[in-house]
Amino acid sequence: MTSKLIPADPSAVTVIRKVTPNITTLSAPFTRFGLIKVGGRGTLVRMTNGQVAVFSPTALTPEAKTAVTELGGKVGYIAALDFEHHIFLGPWAAEYPSAKVLGPEGLAEKRAEQKNENVPFAHIFTEQNKRTEKVGGAFDEDFEYEYVGGHANKELVFLYKPDKTLIQADMLFNLPATEQYSKTGIPADAGIFTKLFSFFNRTSPQGQVWQQRFLWNVCAKDKPSFADSCKRIASWNFEKMIPCHGDVIETGSSEVFKRMFAWHLEGKK
């Protein structure tokens, strides 16, 4: 199914790193269409009540389980961050059956069509319930979240408020995927297709216009809804940003977000 997309031995190439004392990332190689090196990243968050929330889970390796244990071991929530980031949802849900699974509308049906493992979703976010669907309890105390239904991939974006860290999947890329390929011995920008895609999906001021065009013309399928979500996310207080594709942005992430989504926040000129 995904042999050309994910590494044969995830344990050997996954980079496990503490971004903050409460947040651990699992960064691994991942190729889009088997050609473009974009990397993949799962994120583990130790909540203030001691539970662990898992976002966009990657391969459930022994090392990943150890990382969960080091954060307290009790997985309370598992979130598929969009319509695409669900490959490893089944193994994680089976390993931690008491966890509540979160995802966007349509994903359960997609997984059924693809004959993926049956995963019971506790919370499904839709364009209609995006402001009323609440996970509740300690989760809502720790996280802000927004369903970006106007995005082509139906994104879920989370802010872990205690550590001022934004967690997202395909909302914004920060290529090349240097950390995610750092244990492979292969340059993160190797290959003509990867070089081109990385060039068009940078966050540097010098190259931002290309990703801005990609966001405007490709990602924002419903521009009014997309802009509304961007404005809400931009109002949050965050310093770090953890994307699924490309390197973590360690500082100044709020300004990066506002700059990259300026056309949606201010209106394209």
Q: In terms of topology, how is this protein built?
A:
Elements: H1 10-13, E1 15-20, E2 23-28, E3 31-32, E4 36-37, E5 40-46, E6 52-55, H2 62-70, E7 75-79, H3 89-95, E8 100-104, H4 107-113, E9 123-125, H5 137-142, E10 143-148, E11 155-160, E12 165-167, H6 192-200, H7 208-219, H8 223-234, E13 240-242, H9 253-260, H10 262-266
Parallel strand pairs: 6-7, 7-8, 8-9, 12-13
Antiparallel strand pairs: 1-2, 2-5, 3-4, 5-6, 10-11, 11-12
Describe the overall structure.
- This protein has 269 residues and is of the alpha/beta class.
- It has ten helices and 13 strands.
- The strands form three sheets. It has a seven-stranded mixed β-sheet with strand order 1-2-5-6-7-8-9, covered by helices on one side. A four-stranded mixed β-sheet has the order 10-11-12-13. Strands 3-4 form a two-stranded antiparallel sheet.
Key traits:
alpha/beta; seven-stranded mixed sheet; 13 strands
User: How many separate helices?
Assistant: 10
Report low-confidence residues grouped into runs of 5 or more: none
Helicity, as a percent range? 25-40%
The termini sit apart by 43 Å
The helix/strand order is HEEEEEEHEHEHEHEEEHHHEHH
Radius of gyration: 17 Å
Name the quaternary structure: single chain
Strand order in space, largest sheet = 1-2-5-6-7-8-9
- Mean pLDDT, to the nearest integer, reads 95
Main beta sheet, described?
7 strands, mixed
Number of strands: 13
Outline? globular
Overall SS class: alpha/beta
Strand content: 15-25%
